[in-house]
Amino acid sequence: MPDSGTSPLRSALPGTALRPPLPTGPSLPFGPGARTSVPEPAAAAPAGAGAATVPGPNPALDRIVRGPSGMGTAVLHPARREGPPVPSAAADPAAAAVPSARPGTEAAAAEGRPIPGLYHHPVPEPDPVRVAEVSRRIKRWAVDEVEAYPPEWEDQFDGFSVGRYMVACHPDAPTVDHLMIATRLMVAENVVDDVYCEDHGGSPVGLGGRLLLAHTALDPLHTTAEYQPLWAESLLSDAARRSYRSAMAYFSEAATPSQADRFRHDMARLHMGYLAEAAWAQTDYTPEVWEYLSMRQFNNFRPCPTITDTVGGYELPPDLHALPALQRVIALAGNATTISNDLYSYTKELKSPGKHLNLPVVIAEQEGLSDKEGYLKAVEVHNELMHAFEAEAAALAASWPDPRMLRFLRGVAVWVDGNHYWHMTNTYRYSLPDFW
Ligand SMILES: CC(C)=CCC/C(C)=C(\C)COP(=O)(O)OP(=O)(O)O
Ligand SMILES: [Mg+2]
Which UniProt keywords apply (predicted)? Predict the structure, then answer.
């Protein structure tokens, strides 16, 4: 059943109205190559009214949660959504029908229907001016700077709508330059997944070697003078490595050393997940549900929300990031977003060659359920993960009222919501099964 109550996280952090960044990282502009700056569009219009007051354990927490108020401060509340989560569409096949694809219309208002019963939070329509600018710049980067894809894949690149994706996920990015950090990484991560692992020439065979060498674009080789140039040259030898190398260079310019290290660690986790998935494909092994969930905790969106502070222009200190309670919150958020992908990409993956594992498929097979029952149980798993994420994030926010912690938690939460929005509205890429 869809929930319609207010989530604990959003009760504790209504609008997490922290001021946009007092950057602590390197100053902008950053990254190799000159980038022209465009006038910054106003932040997306906040959806709610004034900030809520939350009884807090101390006045400082209250102030942080309440955020700035008074004339002109509305803009300081990135993507506030004061309302309760929208109950998912009624179990009505018409409501779940999928509109036609509209590739190349990145800045247009988005369509799409949520999965019936899926617990989620709506987001304001991403700022179209930012979407248009990010879309323009990312294409220039992909085509001219790193040659990420051949011309015949242009429709798929446009259909991916990465500009809309990243603007929706990072409403508190202070500038388009900041948004570009996340956008390049998102494209690079998908290039590696497509051309090494999946349906654009990827294969499980030999994946470990390819991934490890690509990982050195993120975590460089330190070796002797004889071998160093050979390695450096290898980073330009395919689209995956060129994309990782360049996206990481821009990211590292903006990130503190500890943020860059955090990201490398998250990418190593991701690559370990790819390898388990590939090994199971090679041996035709269908994992138990808990085994699948373990693999998917690594083959996961985690590296995306965890850069929210770099993209927001501030730093969550490493000691706070390492807290077990925050690690659990991050893992739950990553798992909820990734299972959401399993649900939205279900029909796409059914059509792909061979057996593509995702949570509905694994549940149906391992628990002797019909396809529909497996899918609906996967929706419940997703919802439980979302509730756990929100409850634990709210508890952490209350017990650790450091403004950077609160802003980071809010950043992860809005990333989760933006990710859902993108999946729901990406009707070029995804369509819903006929289960309602
Ligand atoms: C952006 C990023 C870090 C991606 C890494 C893992 C990944 C590609 C996903 C979590 C998405 O899952 P999937 O491979 O199933 O993607 P599609 O369903 O093909 O969109
Ligand atoms: Mg998928």
Answer: Lyase, Magnesium, Metal-binding
How far apart are alpha carbons 274 and 207 in whole angstroms? Answer: 9
Structure tokens, 13: 């952090």
User: Looking at residue 111, what is its pLDDT?
Assistant: 83
What ligand 1 atom has the least distance to the C-alpha of 300?
Answer: 10
Which pLDDT value is given to residue 203? 79
CA atoms of 310 and 248, how far apart (whole Å): 13
402-434 pLDDT, tens digit each:
999 999 999 999 999 999 999 999 999 999 999
pLDDT tens by residue, 83-142: 444 443 333 333 333 233 333 445 455 689 999 999 999 999 999 999 999 999 999 999
Q: Please tell me if the CB atom of residue 345 comes closer than 6 angstroms to any atom of ligand 1.
A: yes
Q: How far is the CA of 342 from the centre of ligand 1 (A)?
A: 9
Q: Which atom of ligand 1 is nearest to the CA of 299?
A: 6
Judge if the beta carbon of residue 301 lies within 6 A of ligand 1.
yes
Distance 359 CA to ligand 2 centre (A): 10
For the segment(s) 284-436, the CATH number from 1.10.600.10, 1.25.40.10, 3.20.20.70, 1.10.10.10 is: 1.10.600.10
- Backbone angles phi and psi of 274, in degrees to 5: -60, -40
CA of 7 to the centre of ligand 1 (A): 26
Least reliable range by pLDDT among 21-25, 125-129, 277-281, 304-308: 21-25
The 3-state secondary structure of 163-205, one letter per residue: HHHHHHHCCCCCCHHHHHHHHHHHHHHHHHHHHHHCCCCCCCC
Q: Is 337 helix (H, G, I), strand (E, B) or coil?
A: helix
Which residue's alpha carbon is at the smallest distance from atom 2 of ligand 1? 301
Distances, alpha carbon 338 to alpha carbons 174, 228, 270, 327, in Å: 27, 37, 12, 16
Any ligand 1 atom below 6 A from CB of 270: yes
The residue type found at 131 is: V
CA distance 87 to 7: 12
pLDDT above 90 coverage of the chain, percent: 69
Instruction: Give the closest residue (by CA) to ligand 1 atom 19.
Output: 345
Give 296 Cα–ligand 1 centroid separation in angstroms.
10
Ligand nearest to the CA of 295: 1
Q: How confident is the model at residue 252 (pLDDT cuts 50, 70, 90)?
A: very high
Global pTM exceeds 0.90: no
Q: Mean pLDDT score of the chain, rounded to an integer?
A: 81
Q: Regarding the domain delimited by 127-254, which CATH topology (the fold level of the hierarchy) does it fall under?
A: Farnesyl Diphosphate Synthase (1.10.600)
